[in-house]
Automatic annotation (TrEMBL):
Keywords: Membrane, Nucleotide-binding. This is Ras family protein. The keyword Nucleotide-binding applies. PANTHER family: DRAB11-RELATED (PTHR47979).
């Protein structure tokens, strides 16, 4: 089971608060306290994500896919990064109104020699971030090929958001906004320009994708089971044996 670190932290915080409370009133019941803390943990875990969606980040090598994911998940940026070998995995929770969506993000390699590996992870993806670099015309020209692979391998009606990354490199721009928007319109995609270096529109891009997926699921355009795994039961006795066997005679 993968548990959000914040939830684990909250579990122990709640447990500590309960222990402190019982110690204060001098009626400390360890078994009752643990049960209350576990119940609190279960409720919080269930509320942590109502839906869980697999998405892929796709595009030619060097367009900044990994930098975008790092900016989203860790809010960091590394100037020099190695090209992704195969795939890398991250998860991230996004809130839509009162609903929390968990995105399982597969950051795929863009190099041709790893393309067959990357394509294997497109299967059953219900959404994709399709990325090109605004300073790289070749990465834009290869979008059609990546999009064809997505349509062939991803879930039917998967949502796709087109991203023009590296918007901070204004002087090196090779693709105009109108060119990119025209491509997006032809393929019924949302288009957003981002900068992983500056953090511009990164959260917005993934938020738009999550909303598009969620809307398609609710309309029945994307079918499947998207509930996250439930927290495992933790068997705890609420009625401990009042006369436990003594194993130590010391």
């Amino acid at each position: 089971m993968e548990v959000n670190p914040q939830i684990s932290h909250n579990f122990f915080t709640y447990f500590y608060q309960q222990v402190s409370k019982f110690l204060t009133i001098k009626k400390f019941d360890l078994n009752s306290t643990i049960n209350k803390a576990v119940s609190h943990f279960h409720r919080e875990y269930q509320m942590s994500a109502q839906s869980c969606y697999k998405i892929v980040v796709v595009g030619t090598s060097g367009v900044g896919k990994t930098a975008m994911v790092q900016r989203l998940v860790d809010n960091t940026f590394q100037e020099e990064t190695q090209s992704t070998v195969g795939v890398e995995f991250k998860s991230f929770n996004i809130t839509l109104d009162t609903e929390t969506i968990k995105l399982n993000i597969w950051d795929t390699a863009g190099q041709e020699r790893f393309r067959s590996v990357s394509k294997a992870y497109f299967r059953n993806a219900v959404g994709a971030i399709l990325v090109f670099a605004l300073n790289n015309a070749d990465s834009f020209n290869e979008l059609e090929s990546w999009l064809n692979d997505l349509h062939t391998l991803a879930a039917p009606n998967a949502a796709v958001v087109l991203i023009g990354n590296k918007s901070d490199l204004v002087d090196d721009r090779a693709i105009t906004e109108s060119e990119a928007q025209s491509f997006a319109d032809r393929h019924a995609m949302t288009y957003i320009e981002t900068s992983a270096r500056e953090g511009t529109n990164i959260s917005e891009a993934f938020l738009r994708l999550a909303k598009s997926i969620n809307d398609k699921v609710k309309k029945g355009e994307i079918k499947g089971q998207f509930q996250p795994p439930t927290a495992p039961a933790v068997p705890l006795s609420t009625n401990p044996d009042p006369n436990p066997k003594q194993t130590c005679k010391c």
